UniProtKB/TrEMBL annotation, chains A, B:
Residues 17-103, 121-203 form the PhoU domain. Homodimer. The keyword Cytoplasm applies. This is Phosphate-specific transport system accessory protein PhoU. It holds the Pfam family PhoU. PANTHER family: PHOSPHATE-SPECIFIC TRANSPORT SYSTEM ACCESSORY PROTEIN PHOU. InterPro entries: PhoU, PhoU-like_sf, PhoU_dom. Belongs to the PhoU family. SUPFAM superfamilies: PhoU-like (SSF109755). Gene3D superfamilies: Phosphate transport system protein phou homolog 2, domain 2. NCBIfam families: phoU_full (TIGR02135). Plays a role in the regulation of phosphate uptake. Signal peptide: none annotated. It comes from Pseudoclavibacter albus.
């Protein structure tokens, strides 16, 4: 019984790693489609998102199944509940990558975003790709160091987002309304993408920090 | 033991109703702050959001606690897991109401949004208030009819969102960039608010639909 449970927990953790790899690929291809106005690539990101949704659903079903059959407690229970929440964030990150790809497709053959902020949006894309790559490692290793790195990278994304908003709100901006709409949405999508990564990092830190309690602290907690 | 469990399940359901009432109040006040450029009201929506976050967290802790101590199965388990997901959506709806309020505050003393789409944004606000009101009833009664109403109301919200995007993307729009940014974000926030309501409606329908299985179907499922 215990072995089955450990095997199923490992299955959940592997499933999360796999979904996070799909999310990393999605944001990488979405950012490229955005940068190069590649409609075919954009469309593939949008249609492939269903894979992420399906895998997230399957993982949720497995987690609920484990809760029903194994009735885990303490840390095991938190691992399963956290997996449900992490899969929800990953699923949403996939949606956001698809939204970014969609901007490129809708604006084709024009480039997306006004010149004044386009470079910064592309930088946000590169940062989100890096964050997604670190997230795969984080879910795999549960390294506290990587979790902190992701939080710091999100601060940089927030700074980019603010600078784009400031540029769009500044007097005398040379831009047509559609470009302003695109830049606003792109910046917002990239910012939310990183927010979800931070939310996952915090959940994993919360889970792992339980292991660092000394015996004495454990006794006080009980 | 069984009585304690039923009491705790009721506590969870009451907690969700209470949070949904706070969300309804938040979107009502946010839409009013947006319409009337009322900075004090906007700030109160933003600062009160912490109440929603805290209540959602407390409810999550209760749900996890129930999983640990009662190890519910079948429908009871799905109720508890669904409560975790519904509270996450409600918490996010509170955030979105605060974002809408923030737009009003940032733009004061100007009105938010270009004239061409302002009326439609205000309509979205009125629709989101209605949806939030129905959501309170839905969580309380789990009425399938109300769930369907919320889905239909979301179709209307999507149509408003599309018409605002079309207007912003149309040639010859008379609007400054900051107004375009505000309208894009406001429309997006209202649309996401309604999306979360639909997501909750679907979860509740999924939960309740289990009750409609005939005994024969239940036997086949087991």
């Amino acid at each position: 019984m215990r072995d089955v449970f450990q095997k199923e927990l490992a299955e959940i953790e592997n499933g999360l790693v796999e979904i996070s790899q799909l999310v990393r690929d999605a944001i990488e291809r979405a950012a490229k489609a955005f940068e190069t106005s590649d409609v075919a690539l954009a469309e593939s990101v949008m249609s492939d998102d269903v894979q992420i949704d399906m895998k997230a659903n399957a993982l949720d079903e497995l987690a609920i199944n484990i809760l029903a059959r194994q009735a885990p407690v303490a840390r095991d229970l938190r691992v399963v509940v956290s997996a449900l929440r992490i899969s929800a964030s990953l699923e949403r990150m996939g949606d956001l990558a698809a939204h970014i790809a969609q901007l490129a497709r809708l604006r084709f053959p024009e480039q997306v975003g006004p010149v004044a902020v386009r470079e910064t949006i592309l930088k946000m894309g590169q940062h989100d790709i890096q964050i997604a790559g670190r997230l795969v490692e984080l879910i795999d290793t549960q390294s506290d160091e990587i979790a902190e790195e992701i939080k710091a990278a999100d601060d940089q994304i927030d700074a980019f987002h603010k600078s784009i908003m400031d540029a769009l709100l500044a007097e005398g901006l040379e831009a047509q309304a559609p470009q302003v709409v695109d830049a606003t949405l792109a910046s917002r999508y990239h910012e939310r993408f990183a927010d979800h990564a931070v939310s996952i990092a915090k959940k994993i830190q919360y889970l792992t920090s339980g292991d660092w309690l000394t015996d004495e602290e454990c006794a006080q907690e009980a």
